[in-house]
Every structure is written in C-alpha cells, then in structure tokens.
Design goal:
The protein is α+β, with helices and mostly antiparallel strands. It has ten helices and 31 strands. It has three domains: 23-171, Jelly Rolls, CATH 2.60.120; 183-275, Immunoglobulins (Immunoglobulin-like, Sandwich); 294-581, Glycosidases (TIM Barrel). The strands form eight sheets. It has a seven-stranded parallel sheet with strand order 26-25-24-23-31-30-29. The protein has a six-stranded antiparallel sheet with strand order 3-2-4-10-7-8, with no helix packed on it. It has a four-stranded antiparallel sheet with strand order 1-12-5-9, with no helix packed on it. Strand 23 (296-301), helix 1 and strand 24 form a beta-alpha-beta unit. It comes from Congzhengia minquanensis. InterPro entries: Beta-gal/glucu_dom_sf (IPR036156), Galactose-bd-like_sf (IPR008979), GH (IPR017853), GH2_Domain-Containing (IPR051913), Glyco_hydro_2_cat (IPR006103), Glyco_hydro_2_N (IPR006104), Ig-like_fold (IPR013783), Ig-like_GH2 (IPR006102). This is Beta-galactosidase.
Length: 583
C-alpha cells in the first residue's frame, strides 16, 4: 500500500531527519469509554485496522463508521532508525479530534485538548531499544457544548449545513530526530517599507548561548543574512533583503529561508522555511494589500471531501481546490468553521490566494465566560502556528454567535476577550470578532445576507452610510439596535448560497432557479450589486462546492464544475467601485 499523505506536513519548518507514520494502525471503538480502566494502552493488538490519517467516519480510513463514537483507540509499532541514536525523538500529531492521550510502551507521555491544532511530545526517555509501541486514545463528544466542532453534525445524520463528523486522528502523524538544542517554532514578520524580515526563533533551553544564523533566498539567489547570539528562549534577528519581491494576489512570491543553530562551532540544528513580503491594512475604508486597495473576491470553503471528510485525499487535492476557485475568478476564501491544515496554507502562499483564518466555534456554548477555557488555548495555538503564512490576510475567530437564550452580555464578554487576545498576538492583520452576528468590537463590519433578489439586496445597503442595514431590520426589528455599523469598512461575508434545482432533495437558500440561465442571471445580479457599491471591501459567495446535502456550490462535491467557469470568472473579476474610488 502506498503511504497516504506522504508529503512533509509542516512546510515552514522543515527538517531533513523525519519519518512519516501514516498508514496502517490498529483501531478500536470504545463507546463505553472503559479503555483506560481496562488498560488498552498495554494491549498487544486492537480489533480493527485503520488507515491514518483518515478519520474512521471516512471511506479512505477503511472503517466508514458514521455513528457517534465517544472514544477511539489507535496502536502501531514504532521503529526508530539506527542513525538516530543519541538524538532526541519528537513525536508529532497534526490534529486529533478531540481530547487525545498518547502512550509510548504503555506509559502516558502527553495529553492534548482541541481537534484542530498540532501537538508534539519528546518521547526519548520512554523508548526501548526495540519493540516500541505508540497508543493513542481520542475522546470526542460533539454534543457536549464544550468543544468547538464546526460543521460536524450534532445529530446522528447530516442535515442542512451540518455534515459528517470527524473523530480521532485526521492529519499526518510523524516523528523527527533533533539535538537537545533545537528550534521549536519560527515566526516571520515582513516589512515592505524597509524591505526586511523580522525572524523570531523559539528554542529549547539547551540552545541558550548558541549562535543563530538566518539566511534568505529568492529563487535560489541569496538575498540576505544575519546572526545573533541566543540569550532567551525567543531570539529575534532582522534580515535586510537585497531584492524586493512583493507577495501579491495571484502571484505568491516567496522568499526561502535557512536557519541554523551553531553550538561550539558546529551546526546542531538546521531548518528550512519561507515567508512572503507583504502588508495588509485598512485605509480610507478599503482593504489594502501592499498599500493598494484590493476588493476581496472571496468564496466560502468548508474544507470537506467526499472520501476523506476533513482530510484531503492528497496534497494535490488541496492545491486543486485553490486552482478551481481561482479559475472561477475568486482571489481567496473564507476558510469556514475549520482551522485548515498547514499544507493547504502552503499552497495558498505559493499561489497568491488570500484567505481568512477562522476557528470551528459551532458546537461551543458561549453563554458564560468560563467557556473561554474550551476555546482560547486552541485559538492561540492556531495564531502561533499560522502567523507566518502570507496568504492569511485576516482573522475571524467566531462565526454567527447569536444571542443564545438572550444571554447577550456573556456572549459579548467572550467575543471582546478573544478579539483583544488576537490583536495582542498579531498586530499585522485585521480581526473580525464574529462573522455575521453579533459584533462587539471589530476592525471590519461584516454581514451575512442571503437575499435572492438583486434589487432588494441593493436596497438593504442604500442607507448603510448612516448605519442602517435594512437586511437586519427586515429579519428582526430588534437587530437594528443590536448590531449597527460604527464607520468600519463593510464586508458582505456570506451571500448567494443559491439552491440548485434537484427535485425535493438537497438544501440551499431561496427558491431554486428554473434553469442554468436563471441561475447565472441571479448570480450576476447579486454579485454586481455588491461590486457596484463603494461601501463594500469584498464579498464571499456561499459556496465553492456542494457538501453532502448542501447543494449550493458552483462545483459538485466531487469537484466537477456545474457551469462553464469562464462565465463566473467574467462576473467575479468585474471592476469594483471601491477599487476605482481608491485609485
């Protein structure tokens, strides 16, 4: 069997000595959640076999169990290469949904809570000379109200805009060999004005006193070098760049980096990575890339796959979703209700694709501030992991946080806190507190509006300059006071969602157009209504492809175009009023 998802999983921090641990693992469902008491971590086998990194709900996993699974177990034997002798062995998990406990040779080495971010453990002291075994327990309860689970269905089956669940391992598992003195993370902050990059390197205690060397390259040619001596666990060095190549929409110019730790004159750790030289800003109520107004022609991307659920079947499939979107005339996407994997962001970086980073907040009850413990640590981990991707042009931690049980103040407190933490960690990007409803403190005022009549859609924003959004007044008169723009840039971050005709089957917004021509006419009318309004900085169409029963995509779930993409490219790339105004 060919190794699934064999590509290096962490493209901005690449090491030479690593092993991919995807493939066949032992597997067992533990719905009674008695595995820890029965010491499953000491067993010599489990009763099924699964293909990692695909979740057990998926066809590609070989399990395809779509019922609720409260707890699942994984097991595989682990062989350590002989040439790694004397090195520290780090075990990495790209993502495990939701609460993971990891054992090596029956001993617990770490736990991790959160279904979307990576975690790792130094397993060196738990290893034997031979016969090593990894065991992982994953507990998952999408109905608890205490875990973000995005669009995963809380009912037995998929329904509406909620889809098949993901349980357990769903991203690559891998290990690498390092010196005790090694690099743990890197963050790049570029400056287009003085043509430089600030490199923040996070290291282990054993690296204190080492020399840090950073080299940069563009298309193989050296563009800069700087060194410093490490005195704390975070070392900063600024590299002046001899060549200026801006990262732009549709033109993902990337600088390559090589970072070395040097101890007693010997390189003890070496990694390769990359960054983009670009700046995002809000100026004159416009979204700007590198100082120039750019209209966001975004599309909603759910990150689901018919055979892998949360996990793309291949690296090529991740890349293709971006290429399909660009072929339709979009310049980016809202990565919706899911923290996407680093390999997707790598391709977005390479292709010059502008994306919004979002958490999977649905499923989390935010009616009291204590719920922050179930949200904030994972969100901070996302910000730290993905900070350096130039393709991420803004953050939106929440989506549609309605006033649950009228507990308005509690919801507001959580949104305000998460916004403030996000801005404290990342001052280089705009932040939307919650997409749609209800804003508390936000850099951009975004709205969801699924009005299907283009003329009525225009009417909804005719008095937006004065803070009146008729779409909200029509939906609920109380919303006019609950959510009112205060002069922020305006973004229609969900619209369209045009339901396609499929008898009585499927789900979408509005009445389905009678034929393809009527669908295209409606799409053109809705989209040009937004393009022609100089108050809008961008739109986000719902959605790129169908997902299960939701049939409002411009592509089918198996990624076939429903219409000639040239038609939509022509519509989506029409000049926007705000770009012409800010020229």
């Amino acid at each position: 069997m060919e190794l699934p998802r064999k590509e290096y999983p962490r493209p901005q921090l690449v090491r030479k000595d690593w092993r991919n641990l995807n493939g066949q693992w032992g597997f067992e469902i533990d719905n009674a959640m008695v595995g820890k008491e029965k010491e499953f971590y000491l067993r010599s086998s489990l009763n099924q076999t699964i293909t990692v990194p695909f979740c057990p709900e998926s066809k590609l996993s070989g399990i395809e169990n779509k019922d609720f699974m409260n707890c699942v177990w994984y097991r595989r034997e682990l062989e350590i290469p002989k040439e790694w002798a004397g090195k520290e062995i780090i075990l990495h998990f790209g993502a495990v949904d939701y609460h993971a406990t990891v054992y090596i040779n029956g001993q617990q080495v770490c736990t991790h809570k959160g279904g979307y971010t990576c975690f790792s453990a130094n397993i060196t002291k738990f290893l034997k000379e031979s016969g090593n075994v990894i065991t992982l327990c994953a507990e998952d309860d999408t109905r608890s109200g205490n875990q973000p689970c995005g669009k995963q269905s809380s009912k037995l089956n998929s329904y509406g805009c909620c889809y098949t669940r993901t349980t357990g391992i769903w991203q690559t598992v891998w290990m690498e060999a390092v010196d005790a003195a090694h690099i743990q993370n890197v963050k790049y902050t570029s400056n287009i004005h003085d043509c430089s990059v600030l490199t923040q390197v996070y290291v282990t205690n054993e690296a204190l006193g080492c020399k840090l060397r950073v080299r940069t390259f563009f298309e193989g040619a050296p563009t800069g070098e700087a060194e410093t001596v490490i005195h704390t666990n975070e070392a900063c060095v600024t590299v002046a760049l001899s060549q200026k190549h801006l990262w732009e929409a549709g033109k993902g110019n990337l600088y390559d980096t090589e970072i070395e730790l040097i101890k007693d004159g010997v390189v003890c750790d070496s990694i390769k990575g990359y960054f983009g030289l670009r700046e995002v800003s809000l100026k004159d109520k416009a979204f700007c890339l590198n100082g120039t107004a750019l209209f966001g022609r975004w599309v909603l991307d759910q990150g689901f796959y018919p055979d892998g659920i949360y996990t793309a079947p291949s690296d090529e499939a991740l890349k293709n979703d971006i290429l399909y979107s660009m072929e339709l005339g979009f310049n980016g996407a809202r990565l919706h209700e899911k923290i996407f994997e680093p390999r997707f962001l790598y391709w977005a970086d390479k292709l010059g694709y502008l994306v919004w980073g979002e958490h999977a907040n649905w499923g989390l009850n935010i009616t009291e501030p204590g719920q922050l413990m179930h949200f904030l640590p994972e969100w901070v981990a996302c910000l730290e992991r993905d900070y350096s991707h130039p393709s991420i042009i803004g953050w939106c931690p929440f989506n549609e946080t309605w006033d649950w049980s009228d507990l308005r103040r509690q919801c507001d407190d959580i949104l305000r806190t998460v916004y403030q933490v996000t801005k404290a960690i990342d001052k280089t990007r705009p932040v939307i507190d919650t997409s749609g409803n209800f804003h508390v403190i936000t850099d951009i005022f975004d709205v969801h509006d699924y009005e299907q009549n283009p003329e009525k859609l225009k009417e909804h924003y005719k008095d937006a300059k004065n803070g009146v959004l008729l779409c909200q007044v029509e939906r609920n008169p109380n919303l006019a006071g609950r959510q009112k723009p205060k002069g922020e840039p305006l973004f229609l971050s969900e619209y369209g969602g045009i339901r396609q005709k499929n008898g009585n089957e499927g789900w979408g917004y509005g009445e389905a157009p009678e034929n393809d021509e009527a669908f295209i006419a409606r799409y053109r009318g809705l989209t040009t209504a937004i393009l022609d309004d100089e108050l809008f900085i961008g739109f986000c169409y719902t959605q790129l492809y169908d997902v299960e029963q939701e049939i409002n995509g411009l592509m089918t779930y198996d990624r076939k175009f429903k219409f000639d993409p040239k038609i939509f490219r022509e519509i989506n790339t029409l000049p926007a009023a705000i770009e012409k105004k800010n020229k």
